[in-house]
Amino acid sequence: MFKALLVEKNEEGKTSASVTEVSEDQLPEGDVTVAVEYSTVNYKDGLCIGPGGGLVRNYPHVPGIDFAGTVESSDDDRYKPGDKVVLTGWRVGENRWGGYAEKARVKADMLVPLPDGLTTRAAMAVGTAGLTAMLAIMALEKQGIKDGPVLVTGAAGGVGSVATAILAKLGHEVAAVTGRPDQADYLKSLGASQIVAREELTEVTRKPLEAEVWGGCVDAVAGAMLGRVLKQMKYGSSVAAIGLAGGAAIDGALITPFILRGVNLLGIDSVMQPFENRQAAWQRVASDLPMDVLEAMIQPATLGDLPQLGSDILKGQVKGRVVVDVTA
Ligand code: NDP
Q1: Residue 17's domain spans which residues?
Q2: Are residues 213 and 134 in the same domain?
Q3: Are strands 66-74 and 84-88 parallel, antiparallel or unpaired?
Q4: 59-90, pLDDT tens digit by residue?
């Protein structure tokens, strides 16, 4: 038996989450069993700890869309007991049991060996949010980041915090957009040189274009903010769109920035990334993200804290990266 955060559904269709003992034969099929050490709290986890938001197929369910730990047993030649591994994506924690348990069983293809220079705790401080931030930055680099500040929206959140820190370390001037003015010092400590109030960018305008300001953008928010930001992008620059914390549509967006300024909108999906891309992004994280800055983003938590944290992240109230010590 081992400990897990189990989400159950009653006959009226109501879900409830609690820390419970479960048995190994309840784990899904897979060729590698991992002793999980750390997991994290992402927006999708908030949905899956609650009613599921359409992501969870079967109950009872163990959420946790990412984890890092040590291989306990393996039927695949690529992994042997004792190897340190990390997992993000593949709908683990959504349509199969995830990282909020002392054990997880997955397919070997879903794992990445822990990169040199990262502990399992640091890997989860990065987690899905951080890996997505890195993938977004790599996509911007491929198109070419233009001169001028790089905008990061939803900056005090998980993706935004890591994107801010990495871009600053790479030498870019980072403008961090936040709806929480009390987080200005935190964002400056991550390397932001400019703090932009959320309200400055959420008013929907009918203007086709505005003054060119941003040399690139990592956007975690969409909604009205992305509609405005597109009109302020520099000629030939790119926006890497990773999330929709502010809405699933792009309010007020027009075709003009794409046609008259050659702006690129790059969609970033971390879930189905092939092994090579995930490994390359993890290697870049290990080399480009200063560990002392990463430490400043961490909020420690245990399995018992998750019901509350799941609700907090859906309200946009979580700062930085929550690292769940699954064994505590
Ligand atoms: P967080 O909740 O940690 O951060 C989101 C941030 O967005 C908040 O902290 C807040 O930042 C800002 N925000 C929240 N609500 C609003 C609003 N109504 N209007 C404007 N800004 C808002 O989540 P994550 O960083 O983990 O994830 C962000 C988004 O990215 C989510 O939609 C998530 O599902 C998605 N995602 C996508 C991935 C992919 O593969 N594409 C992978 C991981 C996440 P502040 O207080 O600073 O304004």
Answers
A1: 2-114+294-325
A2: yes
A3: antiparallel
A4: 999 999 999 999 999 999 999 999 999 999 99
